């Protein structure tokens, strides 16, 4: 009895049958190599996404800390022109500069405009990253 797709080997007259339609060893090896390349590429993309997510989380945390520090500076009652630096408990640092601006426009007024620059530094792996926040505040002039 013959199975469709099988034929008798011309060299062997016994009832041994061989399949004429199958994959060769070379075809199987090529398929496995392509599958391996696809898996490696997928893992590299996944790894890159994880690094991007980590960097994004660090950046968001740094921005939140910088904004909190900026609110502290803005809430000071007697904010004066000066420059200082503060080290945080987590190894980050904030450099703050308060300077007068628009002096010619506020010359005859009872208020002054202060520009506040806050540069926040943090460690990300072996690199030091930074972000700068800048704002202005209207304050009463000393009489």
Explain what this protein looks like in three dimensions.
- The protein is of the alpha+beta class.
- The protein is 36% helix and 34% strand.
- It has one helix and six strands.
- A hairpin with a 5-residue loop joins strand 3 and strand 4.
- The model has no long low-confidence stretch (mean pLDDT 85).
Alpha-carbon distance between the two ends: 115 Å
Indicate the mean pLDDT. Answer: 85
Rg for CA atoms? 35 Å
Number of helices: 1
Q: Tell the overall outline.
A: rod-shaped
Largest sheet: 4 strands, antiparallel
- By DSSP, the count of extended strands is 6
In total, the number of domains comes to 1
List keywords for this structure.
single chain, 143 residues, alpha+beta, four-stranded antiparallel beta sheet, two-stranded antiparallel ribbon, 36% helix
């Amino acid at each position: 009895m013959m199975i469709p797709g099988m034929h008798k080997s011309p060299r062997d007259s016994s009832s041994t049958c061989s399949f004429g339609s199958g994959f060769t060893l070379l075809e199987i090896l090529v398929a496995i190599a392509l599958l391996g390349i696809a898996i490696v590429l997928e893992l590299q993309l996944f790894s890159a996404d994880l690094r991007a997510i980590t960097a994004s989380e660090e950046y968001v945390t740094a921005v939140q800390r910088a904004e909190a520090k900026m609110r502290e500076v803005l809430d000071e009652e007697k904010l004066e022109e000066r420059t200082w630096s503060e080290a945080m408990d987590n190894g980050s640092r904030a450099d703050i500069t308060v300077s007068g601006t628009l002096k010619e426009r506020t010359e005859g007024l009872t208020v002054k405009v202060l520009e506040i620059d806050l540069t926040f530094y943090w460690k990300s792996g072996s690199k030091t990253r930074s972000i700068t926040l800048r704002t202005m505040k209207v304050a009463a002039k000393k009489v």
